[in-house]
Structure formats: C-alpha cells, structure tokens
Write a structure and sequence with these properties.
The chain is α/β, with parallel strands linked by helices and 264 residues long. The protein has eight helices and twelve strands. The strands form three sheets. Strands 6-7-8-3-9-10 form a six-stranded mixed sheet, with helices on both faces. Strands 2-1-4-5 form a four-stranded antiparallel sheet, with helices on one face. The protein has a two-stranded antiparallel ribbon with strand order 11-12. Strand 1 and strand 2 (24-37) form a beta hairpin. Helix 4 (124-136) crosses helix 5. The longest helix is centred in the C-terminal third of the chain and has 18 residues, at 182-199. The relative contact order is 0.17.
C-alpha cells in the first residue's frame, strides 16, 4: 500500500508496453497502473523475457507505449519536451554506448547537458553539482582516471553519478547489479537506497538478484505472464507472488527465509 502523505513522482494508468511490427501491436505487459513515491527504492523483477527492460525503456520515453499514459509530477509525459523530460528522468542502461576514453569527471559532467548550452564550459555552480555527485557515489577518488581504466563496479558508480548530476527526481536503472560480484552488488544496492532516502528520489531498477534486494527495497514490481503486481516485499511474500515466479518443477520459494531453492 502507498502512503497517501508521500509525494507521487511517477504514475501510469492502464499502460501497455511491447512492440509494434508491421502495424501489429505485440503487448508484453498490459494494464499497468501504479504510483511510484519519492524517496522509494523500487525493484523490478521477473524472469527473462518478462518485459523488464521494455517497461523501463517505455517509462524513460525511449520506447513508445502501446496504450495508456505515463505521468511525471502529474504531467502526462507526452506533453513534455525532450529537454523537460531530461530534467525529470535520468536513465542508466545496461551496455549503453559511452566513450570510455572520457575521464570520470567528463562522463559525470554529461549529466548537466539538459541545463546548459553544449558549447559552454561548466560554470562554478555546475562544477559543484558534478563534484557533489561524484562524492555521493564515492568515485571522486578516481575522478581523473579514464573510464576504460575502471572496474565494472567503479564504472557503475560513475554512471550513477552522472544520473545524480542530471539532478532528476526519478532515476531508472536497467540491471545495475549485473556483472558485479556479491560485494559490489551489495555496495551499489546500499548506495541506491541511501540516495533514494537522503535525496528523496524515486529509484526504479530491474534485477535478477531477488533475494539480495528483498530486504532493502521499499516496493517491488513483479512481472509475470504479461501482468504487473506491485507491493512491499512483505505484502508480495504474503500474497505468494514469488511462489510461482519461476517454473515450480525447478525452483521453490520459502516464505519464512525469503529464499529460493533448487528442487531436487
């Protein structure tokens, strides 16, 4: 359940996401109606092919919805210009194209593009925002390194720093924990939780690491068989939303331990 006193930053109404091929609409997830709160860390989970990336790309306006509406701060997203949207939503995609010849500071500085003329140098105020973003993500120590010199975990922090420098109320991340070891997954997850709470941002991220995110997420979106179920981890466990998330002949979910196991 959503707290009515909390600010809703992003909402959808009867949203259907998918693809259009040769004039034919191919839905993947249908009739999504949800409200995402400021200050919340929200996990998006589902098996491969369930529509996680498609939903994130649609919420980010990278991909057109098949039907329904998306609203940001109570304004329908289609009514915003691209630059206005860039001031509301920042996106960190898996395997996104970036120039790894850029230094960390240069890459993070790209987050300020919605606010400045691309020909202009950053002024003192913008430079301070970039520095604050790097400090908040603990990547200031290697700010002068080239991105190709970084580990996967370090680069993920830099991409999150760029999203922070963009200074949007909503941050969308596609699989930010992928290709990281357990230590770095935990570090990134705790970083996202802290940013959501301290800066009152709405952070929605997709992940396969369900057991890892259950203790820290405020809410979850569960995609299964073309439908989206929402709730707190505790509510979803009580509703047995995880019991059939994976094929039952292979995987079981223990509600008491909140862990999956492989059936023998």
């Amino acid at each position: 359940m959503q707290d009515p006193q909390k600010h809703i930053s992003l909402s959808t109404h009867n949203l259907t996401v998918g693809y259009a091929q040769k004039g034919t609409k191919i839905p993947i997830v249908s009739n999504i109606s949800l409200d995402l709160q400021a200050g919340a860390l929200i996990g998006l989970i589902g098996i491969n092919g369930s529509g996680k990336s498609t939903l994130l790309r649609t919420l980010a306006s990278i991909q057109e919805p098949l039907s329904g509406t998306i609203s940001i701060q109570e304004t329908i997203i289609k009514e915003l210009t691209p630059n206005e949207r860039a001031k509301q939503v920042s996106v960190v995609l898996t395997n996104q194209a970036i120039s790894k010849n850029l230094s960390v500071t240069e890459l993070v500085s790209l987050g300020r593009q919605p606010y400045i003329n691309w020909l202009d140098a950053l002024d003192t105020t913008n430079l301070e925002i970039v520095q604050d973003a790097m400090t908040a993500t603990s990547c200031a120590a290697y700010q002068n390194k080239k991105c190709y010199e970084l580990s996967d975990g370090q680069l993920q922090r830099v991409l999150i720093a760029r999203a922070l420098a963009q200074d949007t109320p909503i941050i969308l991340l596609d699989e930010p924990l992928s290709h990281l070891d357990l230590h770095h997954k935990a570090a990134i997850l705790k970083l996202l939780k802290r940013i959501a709470q301290e800066q009152q941002k709405t952070i929605l991220f997709s992940t396969h690491d369900i057991e890892l995110v259950l203790p820290l997420c405020d809410n979850l979106l569960v995609l299964k068989e073309g439908h989206c179920t929402t709730g707190s981890p505790q509510e979803l466990i009580a509703q047995k939303a995880f019991d059939t998330l994976f094929p039952s002949e292979h995987i079981s979910f223990d509600a008491e331990t909140a862990r999956f196991s492989i059936d023998k």
